[in-house]
Each structure stands twice: as structure tokens, then as C-alpha cells.
Write the C-alpha cells for this entry.
Amino acid sequence: MTRETTTQSAEETIAFGRTLTELLAPPKLVLLRGDLGAGKTTLVKGIAAGFEAAEEEDVTSPTFTLVHEYRGPRATLYHIDLYRVDTARELETLGLDDLRSDNSILLIEWGEKFPRLQRECDVQISLERQSEMERKIIIRSQP
Ligand SMILES: Nc1ncnc2c1ncn2[C@@H]1O[C@H](COP(=O)(O)OP(=O)(O)OP(=O)(O)O)[C@@H](O)[C@H]1O
Ligand SMILES: [Mg+2]
């Protein structure tokens, strides 16, 4: 399945993220792809709000802590940033496998550099910067 949209502001990207609860019903491993500043973390604000797991303003980039956890009534979201993780060994020490469960959703930025995560992911969401404010968002989910 492929779904595509274009947004004209961060607020629109958040609103789009709020609509993804059905598509991202747990358990899921989701790769969020796109350059620095593409809007991956912004989209997670909407996803977390949609699952009533966090207020959008409370969702911030897990740049230094690598994993942020948001618990909602229907799912526990783990927002993960692998920008600074370079080797498969470092990835293993994060223990992402331990986070996977029937009601968990892993939302991973910069995960595509690890073939194992590419193989195991259920959904890939790509964000492409078209201009200062415009983003093309493409969702590909495995059947
Ligand atoms: N249409 C849009 N959708 C999302 N963000 C937008 C849009 N237009 C402008 N922006 C701005 O782009 C920036 C996106 O930053 P964000 O932290 O979400 O990117 P990121 O992909 O997570 O980057 P990084 O790889 O550095 O973590 C924000 O400052 C946001 O306000
Ligand atoms: Mg980010």
C-alpha cells in the first residue's frame, strides 16, 4: 500500500500524523526517512497526539537520549533517533528488540542505514523537502 500527500506547514504535517492511527495500529516498526529538517520529528508529534500518548508540544527530538517513550491507552510509542548510532554493534546495545511487543510502535529516524531494520520494518514514511514550507510525505506499508 502506498499513500502520498503534500503539506504546506509543520501544523499540516502534525495534523496528517494524527490521521495515521489506523495505519500504524500496533505492533509496528516504522522507519521515518528524510534529510535533516525534513519533518520526521514533527510528524511524530502528530502520531503521538493521535494515539493520545503525548501532547504534541511534549514530543521533542530524542537526539541525545536516543529513545523517548510515550504511553497511550492503545499503544506505547518509542521514538528513536539513530543519527549518532553508526555500527550494528552500537545498535544492538540499544536493545530495540526488547521494546517490541503487541502494543508497541517503534518510530525510528535514520534507521534505514541498518539493513536489519530495513528488512524488519512494517512501514516506511519518507519526507521530502520541496521548498521552505512544502513537504511531500510518502507512506509505504508492507501487506
Ligand atoms: N510542511 C512542513 N512539515 C514539517 N515541518 C516543516 C514544514 N514546513 C516547515 N517545517 C519546519 O521544518 C523543521 C522540521 O524539523 P524536524 O525536527 O521535524 O525534522 P527532522 O526530519 O526530525 O530532522 P532531524 O533529522 O534533524 O531530526 C521544523 O522546524 C518545522 O517547523
Ligand atoms: Mg528528528
User: Anything to note?
Assistant: The chain has a mean pLDDT of 97. Residues 40-41, 61, 81, 109 surround magnesium ion (ligand 2) (CB under 6 Å). DSSP finds four helices and seven strands in the chain.
